[in-house]
Amino acid sequence: MNRYTDFLRIATLPMPIAWGDRNANIAFVEQALSSLPEKTDIVVLPELFTTGYSDDPETMAELAERNTGDTVNTLRRWASRYGCAFAGSFLASTPPHYYNRGFIIEPNGDETFYDKRHLFSLSNEARMFAPGTTPPPVVRFRGWNISLIVCYDLRFPVWCRSRHNSYDLLLVVANWPKARGYAFEHLLIARAIENQCAVVGANRGGSDAYGDYSGLSFIFDCRGYSAGTPAGDTPWLTADLSRLQQEKFRSAFPVSADADDFNLTDRL
After folding, report:
1. CATH code that applies to domain 7-258
2. Which whole number is the average pLDDT over 212-216?
3. Catalytically annotated residues
4. Is it the case that residue 178 has pLDDT exceeding 50?
5. pLDDT, average across residues 92-102
6. What is the CA radius of gyration of the chain?
7. Residue 194: which of 227, 162, 218 has the closest Cα?
8. Is the pLDDT of residue 2 over 80?
């Protein structure tokens, strides 16, 4: 296999998001990209990476963007310039609603969007945002099938299920606080084990009014073992994932053949 059909290099950035300051957050990522590890295939940014979370209606109205706004336009430029895909989420406006909108922007110009389905009912998120109405996407990129969910979606295994090995890599973009960090780490491991796929937990860093988030970004392989390593003196957490090794493991231990089938039509 050549590099694009076997190894996939992932880099995630646990950035300390400046609340409500799109320009500052874009500038932070821009600076970090100057030290992006060579041959990176996918950059995974945290949930709401340009704004952070807000539960104030006036602030949301000011910060929310269309898919043609500054955030997505900047992502398009980065994907083209660095020759890799970018994933994460941003505060989106599709009148009359606001969405926590995940994205995968590819260097060839292909774009995939996913609106967070499970909104955190213990905060105002469930009242401020509209839930998504489509299942997590599966994107074919450099020989891998890749799916994307946003933060609280992680707690719902049926929603995340890789039925019949439908995806090889799950990207989980998050603002998950340390107060629930044990759950975040172990839910990521559980999703990796049950779906026999690599999982990236791309959490933000720093802290805000809602909690401390540092130290909660992870990359796990299809067995649930840690695969992420800090990239030297850079802010990146990286991993080189092998699809060939994952396929060998799935073939030797084909638990997906015994999995239950189901549909989600009632939920949607």
Report:
1. 3.60.110.10
2. 95
3. 47, 116, 151
4. yes
5. 96
6. 17
7. 162
8. no
